[in-house]
């Protein structure tokens, strides 16, 4: 490479480092890969029961281990990203995810599944905490809802392709290829992040001693926790148990199950930037959050009453929109709580912790209830909880002073 070419390459890298749009693309790509691998397992999991000689409740616990690791490591990863920068945590997270995905490909026991899922959860704690904090660092607060909505749409896109890719790879290339091919793609993304310079905030001096709980933040954080746990808990039940329900009630194949989850994810991917844009311009958190939770409960109730698979898919589509409406406002609200402390890593580490609690409660609660109640009853109970929380949200959010 000549001196002139080297200068051009250096200039290009600096432009990428300084570009909010380029950073948004980078964060979207990282989140997309994490969720694609998460969704990759969904259509394959029903096959594990006969393959490994375990029942569905054990598979639910495997799903919950991911959330447990996310819970344990999100705040430490957020704190670490505030001190050492965002990119090192993102790169490490990508390489951990590649290793965990490859391990799934060679798993021959439930123990292997547990280990791979644990590493996957640690990876998510690093990439999500650092990635969302990086986005908050470089985004104007007046546009943060929309930008976070776009980033979260990567969750939907990853969840769309994950189950579809997982189902197709499993049916046509076999078990090992289902995981080794995506593992190679994730490692490539990690190398890309390593090659791109990223400018982000790094806390120094007295800022390192900022508290975890800003003054007057207890009640707003409690409301954020309740909303985020409600949404993620819904996904925590749907991800392991909706495939089992669809297989039992409609004899759905892995590919068909993947398509139903694709409907959910596409709806979320479209709704999330829209919800963020609405919040940025008009506020309306009472209606977005409270109404979103209430309508989510209604959508789950409708899905359990639907006599055909297409009607179930229609209810799931509505659910993707309503869950997104409730979740997206949490992102700028969390950023606002911690903005004065310049500690966005802590903010999104705490957000991830809230999210992981719901992801863990869903599978573990489902596993505990499966021994006593059928799956439809569990989903109806979940619908009732969402409905009650939605009504409470509509009544109480105005008192918090949220837009």
Main sheet summary: none
Alpha-beta classification: mainly alpha
User: Would you state the CATH class?
Assistant: Mainly Alpha
Contiguous runs where pLDDT drops below 50 for at least 5 residues: 202-210
Give the second-level CATH assignment, the architecture.
Up-down Bundle
CA(first)-CA(last) distance: 53 Å
* Count of all domains: 1
Shape: globular
H/E element sequence = HHHHHHHHHHHHHHH
Number of contiguous helices: 15
Q: Helical amount among residues, as a percent range?
A: over 70%
Mean pLDDT: 84
Outline the secondary-structure elements.
Blueprint: H1 3-18, H2 20-40, H3 45-52, H4 56-84, H5 86-105, H6 110-138, H7 144-172, H8 175-195, H9 218-250, H10 254-282, H11 285-305, H12 309-327, H13 330-338, H14 344-370, H15 375-396
Helix pairs in contact: 2-6, 2-7, 2-8, 4-5, 4-6, 4-9, 4-14, 5-6, 5-8, 6-14, 7-8, 7-10, 9-12, 9-13, 9-14, 9-15, 10-12, 11-12, 11-15, 13-14
What does this structure look like?
Helix 9 (about 220-250) runs antiparallel to helix 13 (about 330-340), helix 11 (about 285-305) runs antiparallel to helix 15 (about 375-395) and helix 13 (about 330-340) packs across helix 14. The relative contact order is 0.16. The longest helix has about 35 residues, at about 220-250. Helices cover about 85% and strands about 0% of the residues. The protein has a single domain (about 15-200, about 220-400), classed as MFS general substrate transporter like domains (Growth Hormone, Chain: A, Up-down Bundle), CATH 1.20.1250.20. It has helices at about 5-20, 20-40, 45-50, 55-85, 85-105, 110-140, 145-170, 175-195, 220-250, 255-280, 285-305, 310-325, 330-340, 345-370, 375-395. It is an all-alpha fold and about 400 residues long. The protein has 15 helices and no strands. The chain is globular. GO terms for molecular function: transmembrane transporter activity. It comes from Methanoculleus bourgensis (strain ATCC 43281 / DSM 3045 / OCM 15 / MS2). Its main location: membrane.
């Amino acid at each position: 490479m000549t001196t002139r070419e080297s200068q051009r390459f250096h200039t290009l890298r600096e432009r990428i480092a300084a570009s909010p749009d380029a950073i948004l693309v980078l964060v979207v790509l990282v989140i997309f890969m994490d969720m694609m691998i998460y969704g990759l397992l969904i259509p394959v999991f029903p096959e594990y029961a006969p393959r490994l000689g375990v029942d569905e409740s054990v598979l639910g616990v495997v799903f919950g281990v991911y959330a447990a690791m996310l819970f344990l490591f999100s705040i430490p990863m957020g704190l670490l990203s505030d001190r050492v920068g965002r990119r090192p945590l993102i790169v490490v997270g990508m390489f951990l995810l590649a290793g965990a995905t490859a391990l799934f490909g060679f798993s021959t026991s439930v123990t292997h599944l547990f280990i791979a899922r644990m590493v996957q959860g640690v990876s998510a704690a690093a990439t999500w905490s650092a990635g969302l904090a990086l986005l908050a660092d470089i985004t104007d607060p007046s546009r943060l809802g929309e930008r976070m909505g776009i980033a979260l749409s990567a969750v939907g896109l990853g969840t769309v392709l994950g189950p579809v890719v997982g189902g197709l790879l499993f049916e046509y290339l076999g078990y090992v290829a289902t995981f080794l091919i995506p593992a190679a793609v994730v490692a490539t993304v990690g190398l890309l992040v390593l090659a791109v310079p990223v400018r982000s905030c790094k806390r120094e001096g007295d800022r390192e001693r900022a508290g975890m709980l800003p003054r007057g933040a207890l009640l707003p954080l409690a409301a954020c926790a309740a909303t985020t746990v409600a949404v993620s808990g819904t996904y925590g039940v749907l991800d392991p148990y909706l495939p089992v329900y669809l297989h039992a009630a409609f004899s759905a194949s892995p590919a068909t199950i993947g398509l139903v989850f694709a409907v959910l994810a596409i709806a979320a991917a479209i709704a999330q930037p829209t919800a963020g844009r609405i919040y940025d311009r008009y506020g309306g958190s009472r209606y977005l959050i409270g109404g979103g939770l209430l309508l989510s409960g209604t959508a789950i109730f409708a899905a359990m009453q639907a006599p055909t698979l297409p009607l179930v898919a229609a209810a799931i589509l509505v659910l993707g929109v309503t869950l997104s409406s409730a979740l997206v406002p949490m992102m700028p609200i969390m950023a606002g709580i911690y903005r004065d402390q310049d500690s966005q890593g802590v903010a999104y580490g705490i957000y991830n912790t809230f999210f992981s609690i719901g992801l863990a409660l869903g599978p573990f609660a489902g596993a505990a209830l499966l021994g006593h109640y059928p799956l439809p009853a569990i989903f109806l109970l979940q619908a009732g909880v969402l409905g009650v929380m939605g009504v409470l949200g509509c009544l109480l959010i105005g008192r918090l002073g949220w837009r």
